[in-house]
Amino acid sequence: MGGYELAAIIRSRRISPVDAVEAVLEQLEAVEPSINAFVTVTAEAARAQAKVAEAELMSRAGEDLPALFGVPITVKDLTDTAGVRTTYGSRSFADHVPTSDGLNWARLKAAGAILIGKTTTPEFGGLGVTDSPLTGITNNPWRVTHTAGGSSGGAAASLAAGVAALAWGSDGGGSIRIPAACCGVVGLKASRGRFPVGHAWESVSTEGPLTRNVLDSALLLSVAAGPDPSDPLSLPATCEDFVRAVLNDPVLTGKRIAFAPAPAGANVDHEVAAIVRMAVQAIADGDRAHVEEVALDVPDPVRYFEDYWPPGFVFMGKDGAKDDAATGEDIADHPITKAFAARGRQLSAAQYYHTATAVRGEITAAFNKVFENNDLIFTPTMPLAAFPHPDRLVGGPTSINGIPVASPAIDFHRFTESPSHAGLPAISIPCGFSKQGLPVGLQIIGPLFADAAVLSAAAAVERILPWSNRRPPL
Question: What distance, in Å, lies between the first and last C-alpha atoms of the chain?
């Protein structure tokens, strides 16, 4: 059951919050040994909150209750939750308990959501697979020998396995959309500033929803979006009704869609390329949308990653850590995270400044050129489907179509990286399945601040390609 549907049924008193929480905890207990998607399970606190919600439900009219009243939700372990252990996937923070809530979780909690538990992440969200020395490897519910993606892998895996209808994650260069594609769920990275961040001047990374359908992503966007004075880049509140944009029977008729099957000349797995192409053709035929194939000539996303993110790995996790940042010692345990930090120390300030300004400007210009004549851009979410758990020293697939991959830990993020740095809204939705039964994701990118248009398009695609109704055999 979707979160929007569950919230409505709870308000109508046909289902108690207590029953909803018990059902979710029962499913969690059944599947967790197979997927390893949770760091902390807040079962007793969730049950207590559900009982309080049930009592309130019986004393108030349903229409007066907040949007997420009594609905179970999971939260990625990068988001602070007051009084609940938050480890950031790091052994250095294994016993860390924040005293305050993150900005967006505070909004979700105020809207009545009930926390079920904290989902797994690689340490400090620094990898594209969910593999942490603290919690181990998170498995894909469709094939437990394969990755769930990262860094919101626990969120996506738990959703696909039927644990709660709503999950809260975060995304810098694809950390919501990659796990969504790997696990066959919906993952939204909203426009820059749509969700406020708790530290000033962060213009790329943001928190956001993972859900089993597009409507629930619109619901969480409507609840958590809005400005906060602690974030000078947060967007002002708008009158847009994101939920209505999905419920209003959206169609793509007359829309101009730029289809980029291999942005920046990427090597895409042949089967994935064929599945995405067939999906785009079905969309064009189903709603009579105008589709034009484009190259999307953005700067090399892998090179960009290597020149933009590594300086952040040097200080990753050191704010408030047990170790003194002045010692220069790495807090991170994972070899890939350490390698990124080592590269960060090698980059000069001039190199980083050029990447963060001039090259980032080239990325924005490339997207703007396509949007001059198109309403939306469609790409594969990943150049391949979920892959077998990689060696920890490698971090990703070493080849695609028999061709070696130069940077295995980064390459499969190449389609999600660029729109993030242009600040654009982007969503990943399932568009088909491989012969191995693994989901394949379609990424829909919109112009700056066009979140409602992206959600509307995704809902239209969901109607034409109803893959979101499939469940793994776990």
Answer: 17
Give the dihedral of Cα atoms 61, 65, 68, 72; nearest 10 deg.
-60
Alpha-carbon torsion angle 177, 182, 184, 190, nearest 10? 0
Q: Let me know how many helices (H) and strands (E) the chain has, helices first.
A: 17, 17
Rg (CA), the chain: 21
Query: For the segment 227-270, what is each residue's pLDDT rounded down to a tens digit?
Result: 999 999 999 998 899 999 999 999 999 999 999 999 999 999 99
Residues recognised as catalytic: 76, 151, 175
CB atoms closer than 10 angstroms to residue 281? 12
Environment class of residue 312 by beta-carbon count within 10 Å: exposed (0-12), middle (13-18) or buried (19+)?
Answer: middle
Residue 184 shares a structural domain with residue 301 = no
The CATH number for 114's domain is: 3.90.1300.10
Closest to 29 measured CA to CA, from 122, 140, 164:
164
Per the domain annotation, does 249 fall within a domain? Answer: no
Q: How many structural domains comprise the chain?
A: 2
Per-residue exposure over 321-359, b if at least 16 CB sit within 10 Å of its own CB, e if not: beeeeeeeebbbebebbebbbeebeebeeeebeebbeeb
Whether 377 contacts 246, CB under 8 Å: no
How do residues 436-460 score in pLDDT, each as one tens digit? 999 999 999 999 999 999 999 999 9
Question: Buried (b) or exposed (e) across 415-443, using 16+ Cβ within 10 A?
Answer: bbbbbbbbbbbbbbbbbbbbeeebbbbbb
CB 165 within 8 Å of CB 72: yes
**Which domain, by its residues, includes 68?**
3-244
Domain boundary residue among 244, 268, 301? 244
Element (H, E) at 436: none
By the 8 A CB rule, do 84 and 43 touch? no
Q: For residue 427, is pLDDT > 90?
A: yes
In order of 108, 171, 336, the CA distances from 425 in angstroms are 20, 11, 28
Last residue of a domain, one of 244, 276, 300: 244
Nearest Cα residue to 395 out of 307, 306, 335, 315: 335
Say yes or no: 270 and 204 in one domain.
Answer: no
Angle among Cα 336, 341, 346 to the nearest 5 degrees reads 125
Report how far residue 3's alpha carbon sits from residue 219's, in angstroms, rounded to the nearest whole number.
Answer: 8
Query: Please, are residues 441 and 180 in contact by the beta-carbon 8 Å criterion?
Result: yes
Q: Do residue 327 and residue 283 come from a single domain?
A: yes
Tokens found for residue 251: 């169609």
Asked if 296 and 258 touch (Cβ cutoff 8 Å), the reply is yes
Residues 74-90: tens digit of each pLDDT: 999 999 999 999 999 99
Same domain membership, residue 159 and residue 52: yes
Query: Is 201 found in the same domain as 268?
Result: no
